[in-house]
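Priority: medium. Attachment 1 of 2:
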């Protein structure tokens, strides 16, 4: 069945297959007999039409259908026979032409994962320190206090921290705004704005000029000045709860001590997660740098497409004319492909390395792994698991992308677990480079 196999590169092979003539003819004749048994032609009873007429009328369709069945079947058998593990869909070279009573020849190119002897035992990585200070806990508690604060009408003029309900005009833009809410002292507007409002009584009007910094988030105002006319309609003062045991009980903790302990634990967990992500990134970089091989081009192209898709989305959200969702992309896609290619190659190599380690260690992604991830992500996105799954299927065509992400995370967890921790500040040894096996 297999005529030849040829190595094109370390990640691409050419397979020539020949399906015996008798197998092709048997498939065609079987289909023609089935059609004959189910067909009534004029002048003949059902199933009694001459085979010559059946073949004349249905022969070409049957040949096409036979090819659709035979090609995948013999391709799969050829893959098993050679032991090749493709990493993408095969590409047919030339075409396929059925000639009755002759072998059916076809040639495919397939991408394969390179053979790389990955060394990952005993890798060294910096043991980054995690530490939560008392002041960090206190700041978090104060933010929780602010979230539960109420605002009540205040006596006297505007002061720092007050909430002001105001109407204002901008002379240069000929614009007016009604019932705008602003917290005095916030960085939503330049500090000069809050300074000019301070001391104004309820019902009072004040006019002033404000210079916006060059790095102001609203580009249309950055580096410019505007003249404001502001009328203060309401002034409200913050009424925050005391930080004590009662405050903790309102948050379903027995005491302030237990609330602080919970906050500290969550912050320490976040720090540990951040450190682990950093360490995994360093380990992946070391693994990629230590093993010389070419990744499959389809892997590289897939990474490039992901990077370009992100760039397109960013460009469409921030078009040249400043109108969201409109305007042409601001980037040259051809130039960006060249710019991103080195990073895409590194990402593709990382995928190969993690796949090899995962297979060697027998790492699998279970249904429970998938369900847990879907539930967690749906909660974070404030949607239902069903809607999240629909989104991923619509976006990627399946949940394979999510499954691969979970797989790679599990592999990295194992690599990190087996790594040797080096105290921060001490240089670590890097694994020696290994070349791919052709």
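Attachment 2 of 2:
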């Amino acid at each position: 069945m297999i005529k030849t196999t040829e190595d094109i590169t370390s990640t691409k092979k050419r397979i020539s297959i020949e399906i015996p003539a008798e197998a092709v003819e048997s498939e065609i004749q079987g289909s023609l007999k089935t059609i004959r048994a189910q067909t009534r032609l004029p002048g003949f009873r059902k199933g009694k039409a001459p085979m010559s007429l059946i073949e004349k009328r249905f022969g070409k369709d049957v040949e096409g259908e036979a090819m659709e069945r035979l090609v995948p079947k013999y391709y799969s058998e050829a893959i098993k026979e050679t032991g090749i593990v493709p990493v993408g869909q095969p590409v047919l070279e030339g075409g396929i032409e059925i000639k009755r009573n002759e072998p059916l020849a076809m040639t495919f190119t397939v991408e394969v994962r390179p053979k790389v002897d990955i060394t990952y035992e005993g890798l060294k990585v910096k043991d980054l320190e995690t530490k939560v200070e008392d002041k960090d806990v206190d700041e978090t508690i104060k933010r929780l206090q602010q979230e539960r604060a109420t605002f009540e009408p205040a006596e006297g003029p505007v002061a720092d921290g007050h909430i002001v309900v105001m109407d204002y005009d901008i002379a240069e833009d000929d614009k007016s705004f009604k019932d705008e809410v602003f917290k005095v002292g916030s960085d939503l507007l330049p500090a000069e704005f809050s300074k000019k409002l301070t001391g104004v009584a309820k019902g009072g009007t004040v006019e002033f000029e404000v210079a916006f910094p060059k790095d102001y988030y609203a580009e249309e105002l950055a580096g410019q000045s505007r003249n404001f006319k502001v009328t203060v309609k309401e002034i409200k003062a913050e009424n925050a709860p005391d930080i004590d045991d009662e405050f903790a009980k309102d948050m379903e903790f027995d005491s302030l001590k237990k609330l602080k302990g919970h906050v500290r634990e969550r912050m320490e967990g976040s720090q540990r997660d951040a450190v682990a992500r950093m360490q995994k990134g360093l380990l992946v970089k070391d693994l990629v740098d230590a093993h010389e091989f070419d990744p499959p081009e389809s892997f590289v192209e897939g990474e490039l497409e992901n990077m370009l898709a992100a760039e397109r989305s960013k460009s469409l959200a921030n078009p040249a004319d400043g109108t969201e969702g409109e305007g042409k992309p601001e980037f040259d896609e051809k130039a960006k492909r060249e710019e991103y290619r080195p990073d895409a190659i590194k990402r593709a190599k990382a995928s190969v390395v993690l796949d090899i380690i995962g297979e060697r260690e027998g790492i699998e992604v279970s249904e429970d792994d998938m369900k847990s991830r879907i539930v967690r992500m749906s909660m974070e996105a404030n949607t239902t698991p069903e809607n999240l799954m629909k989104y991923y299927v619509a976006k990627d065509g399946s949940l394979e992308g999510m499954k691969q992400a979970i797989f790679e995370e599990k592999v990295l967890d194992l690599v990190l677990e087996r790594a040797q921790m080096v105290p921060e500040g001490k240089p670590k040894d890097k694994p020696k480079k290994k070349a791919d096996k052709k």
